[in-house]
Specification:
single chain, about 400 residues, alpha+beta, Immunoglobulin-like, 8-stranded antiparallel beta sheet, 8 helices
């Protein structure tokens, strides 16, 4: 193995990240893409690039069981020289945007979710956790199109101290999802060298290099790419393939470091002193089909108080050794938040921070090596929030 490096994946075409739904070339079929690839997609591309002989194009099967580390994918914005000018991350699930009083499309009110005291008349599917809620009962509608990715500065501020804010400029928070390009394909009749009547199907791909329209929340001529962190030798980079239909990308070695290389001192000190924290997943995680990790929590005396996450994601794949589909797995989506109570032992608290911040967690070592469960930490004082119904009536 070589030292850990950052690799920029600069797409030359829109990339297809299949969502796992059945797709054939039957008339009317549609192949939909995910907005971001699963970590396994990027890990597979990294290993293919590293273990394929560039001269012969032959993949070295003997290295399949070699140990490796891949972190990512991470979304970045690029300048004309392929230098990174901004990092973007999935929005934390404890941050919710609501419509402003004047129904602005460029601003929204931001409120944070926190654990609430256990209610005697509420039944939960878990007896050892509580619900999360707002400080007041919000009557406004949630904002329809909040940023799909947060920039690093905004995310770090939220991890350090989540504060509800009114009339937040959405452009300062992050960006919307990247645009999707659709392509229509047609089946051919070989004997006639012409299109087969009615045999149309459609594919979609994520655009990373494009000019936006006037109504787009992204400005014109913005270029984006993906970053993978790995200890594998990619032979200097160069052209390769990522995703469906073997779309071309350029692998470029980077000299920069990720902004989350080490936990900030403010967040570290707060977590060590209070014994409580929030855990943010910046890539989907596999916890044995459950919604929380088991091994790392049990070993370090960590207790899960509450969880905020969207519905699980399903991931599968194709096993080239057995020539069969891989078993499906349920993933906890990126952006999920876990409110945690740490051990009373200060050394175990420090150990927990070092094992989690910027590292992958989960109950499957193989998936952790592929980049699933990449995590960051945020502060939490451990207090439970009661909803103020009087303020709700005054709204």
């Amino acid at each position: 193995m070589s030292e850990t490096k950052l690799w920029l994946i600069s797409p030359r075409d829109p990339l297809i990240f299949r969502n796992g739904k059945p797709f054939t070339a039957a008339p009317g079929s549609r192949a939909e893409t995910l907005p971001m690839p699963f970590p396994g997609t990027i890990s597979g591309a990294v290993r293919t690039k590293a273990w394929t002989n560039s001269a012969t194009g032959v993949f070295d099967k003997s290295r399949i069981n070699d140990p490796y580390v891949v972190r990512g994918p991470l979304l970045v914005e690029l300048d004309s020289a392929n230098d990174i000018i901004a990092w973007f991350f999935p929005p934390p699930a404890d941050a919710v945007f609501f419509e402003t009083a004047n129904k602005s499309k460029k601003e929204a009110d931001l409120f944070d979710l926190k654990p609430m005291p256990a209610l005697y008349d509420v039944l939960l599917d878990s007896k050892d956790m509580v619900l999360c809620g707002f400080e007041i009962n919000k009557k406004e509608k949630t904002f329809k199109s909040p940023p799909s990715f947060w920039n690093w500065q905004t995310l770090l501020q939220w991890l350090d101290k989540p504060v509800s804010q009114m009339n937040v400029d959405l452009d300062s928070v992050g960006i919307s999802h990247l645009p999707v390009e659709y392509r229509i394909h047609v089946a051919m009749v070989n004997a006639l060298q012409s299109a087969k009547e009615g045999a149309l199907f459609q594919t979609s791909g994520v655009e990373f290099d494009y000019q936006t329209g006037q109504n787009s929340p992204l400005k014109k001529n913005r270029r984006f790419g993906l970053v993978a962190i790995s200890d594998l030798d990619l032979h200097g980079g160069g052209l390769g393939f990522v995703g469906g239909e073997k779309r071309f990308v350029n692998w470029i070695p980077l000299q920069s470091k990720p902004p989350f290389e080490s936990c900030t001192q403010n967040i570290r000190d707060e977590i060590e002193d209070s014994g409580f924290c929030r855990l943010l997943l910046i890539t989907p995680a596999y916890f044995g089909g459950k919604n929380r990790p088991q091994k790392i929590l049990a070993n370090l005396g960590v207790e899960v108080i509450a969880i905020i996450n969207n519905r699980f994601q399903t991931v599968s794949g194709w096993d080239y050794q057995t020539r069969k589909p891989k078993p499906t797995k349920h993933l906890v989506p990126a952006g999920s938040i876990l409110f945690l109570k740490l051990s009373d032992d200060i050394e175990k608290r420090k150990q927990f921070i070092d094992l989690v911040w910027g590292q992958t967690i989960g109950d499957d070592p193989q998936l952790c090596s592929d980049g699933y469960g990449l995590s960051l930490l945020g502060t939490w004082d451990g207090d439970f929030r009661s909803m103020n119904m009087e303020d709700a009536h005054d709204q």
